[in-house]
Design a protein that fits this description.
alpha+beta, four-stranded mixed β-sheet, globular
């Protein structure tokens, strides 16, 4: 079985294990809120971040975020590195997102989207991820007490990733 077919089967199997997309009005509110922040620019810690272009919702990144949130919930941990040592780049690869840029914000215990965004904006590294101009798409999921926001940009056609390991893209 070719690796592309196997990857597609794994992707579709995982989709069946993850809850359906949020309603469109929720997606619109999430994207609008993040784009207002990106459009206005903001201070991330001591550094002012210039306005950057808008981001769009990605169903694919919603599924990667849902998968990680579900894994943290089921396996009782909170972190960017899973218990089996996988990072956001690995998770994107596993679910077939051919990433050029990858990023992840996590939250735990916030009751609302507004609360988790406020917390992310108070954290310089999370804020910089929201303001990262390289990130063109996002997905967001909440499972139990865990929030996962995935950011990414797909690899352009006919390009191949030379860095196979993820590194924090918010410097």
């Amino acid at each position: 079985m070719s690796s592309n077919i196997l990857l597609s089967l794994v992707f579709f199997f995982c989709l069946g294990q993850i809850k359906a997309q949020p309603p469109q009005k929720v997606i619109d509110r999430v994207v609008t809120t993040i784009n207002e922040i990106r459009n206005d620019g903001c201070k991330c810690g001591k550094k002012y971040m210039q306005p950057v272009g808008p981001i769009t919702w990605s169903d694919h990144l919603y599924y990667t975020a849902s998968s990680h949130a579900e894994d943290m919930l089921e396996n009782n941990y909170f972190g960017h590195i899973s218990k089996d040592g996988r990072d956001v780049g690995d998770r994107f690869d596993d679910l077939g997102y051919n990433w050029q840029y990858a990023g992840e914000n996590l939250g735990e215990g916030q009751d609302s989207f507004e609360e988790v965004v406020r917390d992310w904006l108070q954290s310089p590294s999370h804020c910089k991820m929201i303001m990262n101009a390289d990130m063109k798409e996002m997905g967001l999921s909440k499972r139990g007490r865990f929030w996962v926001q995935h950011f990414g940009t797909t690899m352009p056609p006919n390009y191949r990733r030379t860095k196979t390991r993820y590194s924090e893209g918010n410097e």
